[in-house]
């Protein structure tokens, strides 16, 4: 009882929140309200180049909008989701510690499904139209789920294989060839352990290539015969695993560890979800200078990653302003710059002025990097409901030996 | 209020504050994990009690392996560490070697677990320093061989990693205990009766020493069965220990996994409890089996052989640690460093230059948090120990148990619950919450390191000062604190090192907003760049080392004209 009285008094003493009011339809009012706010952006912090880019963004929004952007480096985006869940459990409705969150796919589905997201707001961002959503429907779709304005596109990713050309002349260019190659090069290939993001992505890539019913993957899993659709995948993995690194008893924790194993020379072939990573890692001394990258002949899995705002974020105006800045031609060009991060843009070049377009053409691409046009053959992400059963089934079969 | 009353009331309150700081977070954290373990978490649609999370947990593939791994690595590492420590003390207590090793203890203890594990992993990995040293001339390897170490399915590398950290800890804890159980006097008597040193140590000193080491050993077991960071770096992956898996489930994007994660957290608590129970039973067994042996009057027991083994073991422990740290230093200056080259050549400062900017904030926040948490703990510990002296009796047994609570309850078991409590009482995540969160873990270590010296202090010093007319504050500040300055500073350095090494409390209580060298090192370890990881691991190691250096040299400086106040090295 005393508690309630204390809260009431505190509520009365608090200044009214007029200073933070804004109208999404009136963008001026958003940037006005954003001034002076501290935006806590929860984003994976495992890559120094990504971190350096976020630092650059923080610098810019400080100068332009007076926003103090803090990069909260999480090891796994789910940590940030956990925090919002805990806050909701404790009845924290408008003082949330997470203002902006970098996510896609499964985390988006989980947050949306549990009503943990603020929105819709993304399509009201002034810069959103630059993505030309009519021509690029993937910016409105996250793992087949409609985004509905609850997150704003930020960048693109696609599975890209890389290898050490000093050790390997002809890398395998499809799934069956990969198996044959692994047999003759035992212990020199592996993939991250699901549910690590990149490991699950590899499962989906393999499943798309191997299954006889690829169309079933684009509908919720409970509408398909999971066993029948995935049988070719398990058959393939059963044959592949004995020839993997550590004979398939152990798996790396994620893409970065796989990159480390490539740097050590333990692996001859690896893959990443960020096409620029091999080139960047050569510059950082992490990979041999003879590293080259390529994608499979029939294309590889690709998707768009987004930023979203939790429903209880304390600094929504600031988060909106940052999200809009991230979509600006300047920020997107900077992000795609290989010397910065190398993450592909979500903007449509046809919507930009010639000078803006100019800033996206990088003169000298490192040898390890792919020419931009080869990123064409993108396979769409399956429905997110497939992820959990796939990971479960994998764990059941290979998780414990 | 007179000064004497203010002293009495402050000293009367501090023990209660201590108890509150230790028990409230742990208790509410465990409750916060307990409710969802039985299906109750309304925000995720769990509003009735059910055993479903437990059923889901029991059906988890590999659960048996995870639990076995946790218990076996925990008990094995504790047993090996204790064995090494006891053999070493018994064989070398009165030799110059003991003094030399003693001097290395504090610096070694200052090495955070994660840094030591990273160093060890680098040393023994297929592409590690040992393999590079032997390749290709001895092994014929042009590329790293394909074997799983660290990360072997038996957990041997994990055990090794725990042992190299636990041996220095137990040695340090025995320093005080040896004096308290009058080891020197016991040994002298036994030696004069013709017992060889090691036999004398086993038969005469151990029965007095072990009870004093019991709580540190229990803390070691609790830590070893539930460690997350060390197991992540050195443990196997299919599957890892239960604690690592619980953190994984907690972070699973599928929110419904959180019920099972909570059940796993409770299971982790039970496992640790079980490991302690097994150890206790073994204790009884060894005690009853050795009773006859202790009294059989035989004067020796394979002294030379056991002594040689002790020497080898301690050399291995210290050698692995130092070589691992040397490896970290090399990585921090390496450009592309292909296998099997033994040294990174030419070295580069570019890694450090690139990291310099990134180091400033984490180092500053680490220092701030560690200093504040240590000071807070120190005040509470001093208050509790003063209260003991005032009442002329040790803490009641239940209060004693509460003091060790955060060391005995696995931290993964109550941290998620702590986040809930934090939001519930409206504490903003940030520096303040992180400092309190660290203090929960720092305080027991400060207490452990300080209590024995404090209790050993001759009460007649205070009585004499009182009889000369000094008030209680004056006695405390001018007599007791100076007499105890060296152990107080050592305890503070231990607490500081513990705080620097904390990962989970920093991330959870700070909502990820507080960045320390440890959170950076761990988050980078997932990023895989060995060079940056090495730089942050080194930073993680240099900060506590600084603390121990201060603890060593401040008394020497302050008491340079009062040599009698300096601790005798015994």
Describe this structure in words.
- The complex is a heterodimer of chains A (401) and B (570).
- By secondary structure, chain A is of the alpha/beta class.
- Helices cover 38% and strands 13% of the residues of chain A.
- Chain A has 14 helices and eleven strands.
- In chain A, the strands form three sheets. In chain A, strands 1, 2, 3, 6, 10 and 11 form a six-stranded mixed beta sheet that branches. In chain A, strands 8-7-9 form a three-stranded antiparallel beta sheet, covered by helices on one side. Chain A has a two-stranded antiparallel sheet with strand order 4-5.
- In chain A, α3 links the parallel β1 (38-44) and β2 (68-74).
- In chain A, α2 (27-34) crosses α11 (316-326) and α7 crosses α8.
- The model of chain A is unreliable at 11-19 (pLDDT under 50).
- Chain B is mostly helical and 570 residues long.
- In chain B, α3 runs antiparallel to α9 (197-226) and α14 packs across α22 (517-525).
- The longest helix of chain B has 42 residues, at 350-391.
- Helices cover 75% and strands 1% of the residues of chain B.
- Chains A and B meet through β2, α4, α5, α9 and α14 of A and α14, α17, α22 and α23 of B.
Question: Features of this protein?
Answer:
heterodimer; A: 401 residues; alpha/beta; D-Maltodextrin-Binding Protein, domain 2; 2 domains; six-stranded mixed beta sheet; three-stranded antiparallel beta sheet; 13% strand; B: 570 residues; mainly alpha; MetI-like fold; two-stranded antiparallel sheet; 23 helices; 2 strands; 1% strand
Task: Write a compact overview of the structure shown.
Chain A is an alpha/beta fold.
């Amino acid at each position: 009882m005393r508690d309630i009285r204390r809260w009431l008094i505190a509520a009365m003493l608090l200044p009214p929140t007029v200073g933070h009011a804004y109208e999404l339809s009136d963008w001026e009012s958003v940037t006005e309200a954003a001034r002076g706010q501290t935006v806590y952006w929860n984003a994976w912090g495992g890559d120094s180049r990504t971190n350096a880019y976020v630092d650059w963004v923080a610098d810019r929004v400080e100068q332009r909008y007076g926003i103090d952007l803090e990069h909260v480096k999480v090891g796994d985006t789910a940590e940030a989701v956990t925090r919002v869940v805990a806050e909701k459990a404790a009845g924290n409705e408008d003082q949330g510690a997470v203002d902006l969150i970098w996510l896609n796919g499964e985390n988006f589905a989980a947050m949306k499904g549990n009503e943990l997201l603020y929105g819709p707001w993304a399509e009201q961002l002034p810069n959103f139209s630059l993505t030309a959503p009519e021509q690029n429907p993937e910016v409105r779709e996250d793992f087949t789920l409609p985004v509905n304005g609850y997150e704003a596109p930020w960048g693109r990713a696609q599975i890209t294989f890389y290898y050490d050309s000093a050790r390997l002349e002809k890398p395998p260019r499809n799934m069956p060839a990969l198996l044959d190659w692994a047999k003759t090069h035992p212990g020199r290939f592996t993939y991250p352990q699901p549910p690590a993001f990149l490991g699950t992505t590899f499962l989906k890539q393999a499943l798309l290539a191997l299954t006889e019913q690829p169309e079933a993957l684009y509908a919720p899993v409970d509408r398909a015969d999971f066993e029948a659709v995935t049988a070719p995948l398990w058959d393939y993995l059963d044959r592949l695993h004995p020839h993997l690194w550590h004979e398939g008893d152990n798996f790396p924790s994620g893409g970065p560890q796989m990159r480390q194993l490539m740097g050590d020379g333990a692996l001859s072939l690896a893959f990443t979800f960020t096409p620029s990573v091999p080139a960047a890692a050569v510059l950082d001394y992490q990979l041999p200078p003879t590293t080259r990258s390529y994608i499979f002949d029939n294309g590889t899995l690709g998707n768009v990653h987004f930023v979203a705002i939790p429903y209880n974020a304390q600094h929504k105006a600031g988060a909106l302003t940052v999200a809009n800045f991230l979509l600006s031609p300047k920020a997107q060009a900077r992000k795609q710059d290989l010397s910065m991060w190398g993450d592909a843009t979500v903007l449509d070049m046809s919507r930009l002025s010639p000078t803006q377009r100019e800033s996206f053409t990088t003169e000298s691409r490192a040898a390890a990097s792919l020419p931009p046009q080869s990123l064409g053959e993108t396979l769409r992400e399956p429905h997110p409901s497939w992820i959990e059963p796939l990971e479960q089934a994998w764990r059941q079969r290979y998780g414990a030996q | 209020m007179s000064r004497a009353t203010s002293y009495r009331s402050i000293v009367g309150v501090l023990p209660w504050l201590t108890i509150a700081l230790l028990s409230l977070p742990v208790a509410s954290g465990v409750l916060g994990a307990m409710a969802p373990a039985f299906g109750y978490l309304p925000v995720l649609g769990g509003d009735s009690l059910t055993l479903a999370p437990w059923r889901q947990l029991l059906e988890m593939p590999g659960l048996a392996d995870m639990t076995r791994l946790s218990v076996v690595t925990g008990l094995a590492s504790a047993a090996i560490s204790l064995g090494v420590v006891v053999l070493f003390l018994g064989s070398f207590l009165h030799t110059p070697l003991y003094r030399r090793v003693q001097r290395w203890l504090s610096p070694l203890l200052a090495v955070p677990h994660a840094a030591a594990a990273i160093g060890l992993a680098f040393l023994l990995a297929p592409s590690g320093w040992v393999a590079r040293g032997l390749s290709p001339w001895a092994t014929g390897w042009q590329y790293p061989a394909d074997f799983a170490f660290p990360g072997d399915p038996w957990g041997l590398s994990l055990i090794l990693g725990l042992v190299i950290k636990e041996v220095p800890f137990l040695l340090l804890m025995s320093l005080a205990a040896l004096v308290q159980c009058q080891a020197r006097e016991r040994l002298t008597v036994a030696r004069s009766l013709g017992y060889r040193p090691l036999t004398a140590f086993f038969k005469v000193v151990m029965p007095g020493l072990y009870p004093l080491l019991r709580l540190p050993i229990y803390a070691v077991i609790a830590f070893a069965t539930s460690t997350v960071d060390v197991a992540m770096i050195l443990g196997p992956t299919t599957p890892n220990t239960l604690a690592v898996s619980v953190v994984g489930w907690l972070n699973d994007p599928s929110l419904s996994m959180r019920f099972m994660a909570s059940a796993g957290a409770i299971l982790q608590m039970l496992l640790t409890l079980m490991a302690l129970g097994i150890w206790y039973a073994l204790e009884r067994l060894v005690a009853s089996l050795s009773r006859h042996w202790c009294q059989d009057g035989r004067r020796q027991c394979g002294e030379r052989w056991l002594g040689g083994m002790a020497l080898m073991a301690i050399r291995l422990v210290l050698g692995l640690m130092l070589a691992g740290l040397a490896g970290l230093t090399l990585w921090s200056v390496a450009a592309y460093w292909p296998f099997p080259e033994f040294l990174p050549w030419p070295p580069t400062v570019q890694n450090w230059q690139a990291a310099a900017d990134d180091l400033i904030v984490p180092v500053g926040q680490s220092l701030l948090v560690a200093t504040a948490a240590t000071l807070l703990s120190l005040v509470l510990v001093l208050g509790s120990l003063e209260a003991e002296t005032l009442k002329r009796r040790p803490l009641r047994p239940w209060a004693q148990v509460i003091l060790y609570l955060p060391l005995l309850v696995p931290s993964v078991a109550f941290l998620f619950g702590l986040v809930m409590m934090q939001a519930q009482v409206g504490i903003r995540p940030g520096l303040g919450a992180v400092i309190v969160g660290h203090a929960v873990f720092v305080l027991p270590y400060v207490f452990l390191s300080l209590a024995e010296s404090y209790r050993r202090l001759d009460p007649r010093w205070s009585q004499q000062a009182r009889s000369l007319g000094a008030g209680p504050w004056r006695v405390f500040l001018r007599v007791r604190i100076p007499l105890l300055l060296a152990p107080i500073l050592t305890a503070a350095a231990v607490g500081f090192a513990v705080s620097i090494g904390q990962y989970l409390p920093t991330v959870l209580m700070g909502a990820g907003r507080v960045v320390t060298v440890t959170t950076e090192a761990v988050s980078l370890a997932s990023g895989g760049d060995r060079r940056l990881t090495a730089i942050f691991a080194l930073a993680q190691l240099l900060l506590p080392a600084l603390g121990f250096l201060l603890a060593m040299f401040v008394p020497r400086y302050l008491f340079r004209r009062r040599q009698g106040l300096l601790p005798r090295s015994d």
